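Supplementary Methods, section 5.1.

A reviewer requested that the exact input to the structure prediction be made available. We therefore reproduce it here, unchanged from the version used in the analyses.
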Amino acid sequence: MRNVMKLLREPLLHFLVIGAVLFGVYQWATGDETAPDEIVVSAGQIASLQAIFSQTWQRRPTAKETEALVDEYIRDDVFYREGIAMGLDRDDAIVRRRIRQKMEFVADLAADVQPTDAELRAFVADHPDRFSGKPSVSFTQVYFPSGAQAANEVEVERLRLALDAGTTDASTAGSPLLAGSDFRDLTKSEVAQTFGADFAAWIDRATPGTWQGPVISGYGTHLVRVSERVEARELPFEQVRDAARREWLHARKVAANDALYKKLRSRYVIKVEKMPGASTETIVGVAE
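The structure derived from this sequence is encoded token-by-token as follows.
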């Protein structure tokens, strides 16, 4: 009995039982001919409670555990019905939001169809910007700190010419930078995260193959040589299939939710009361 009581205190069990209760009450409210003051726990509902228990705990419930599940089901049902009768669900933002989520979940279930490769290929073709390789840049920088140790413009220009002529090794020039000196295949946003938006905008215009600068970042002053620039490119379908599938499913669910909302909204005449300063009230929906 102690184990049964411990089990009944599990929040997960309460959540599962409440879900079963809501399903049962929905059936009761949408066509069950049971009297309003009568609660019938059918064999099917008991089997559902047992199945949920088995999925959660990886074993079948004992007779006492099944009796406890049914008691909890009835308790929830009683409080739920009495709460509805008292109007406790009205004007409750949390209840309204939860019911909306349940309605949207119904639409999600209807949209939960796995796409074929042909559908995914068509989706990728319709949204090439989402699934193409982003432009990237590779570069080397030589760093000069700001402040008392800052190099003057003449020294920086002299070093730039030496680097461009190949008479000075970039790895020994300037000062060490914790972020590093060589950067490979960085997107513009990644450059901006490290060096700032102004530096990223500058390097986006820099000509590859020569040492250029000086350019300022949040760290200080830099000389920069862009070694490679890769433009946006189409990626192999196999590389983007998983991402395309996730976005396809998301788009389908959004469309299903919008379609459900539009259909349900058409049943209502919706009036928005006149706001201060407005001349008339607005009718924003008419039931068909």
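The domain at 135-231 is CATH 3.10.50.40 (Chitinase A; domain 3). These observations are discussed further in the main text.
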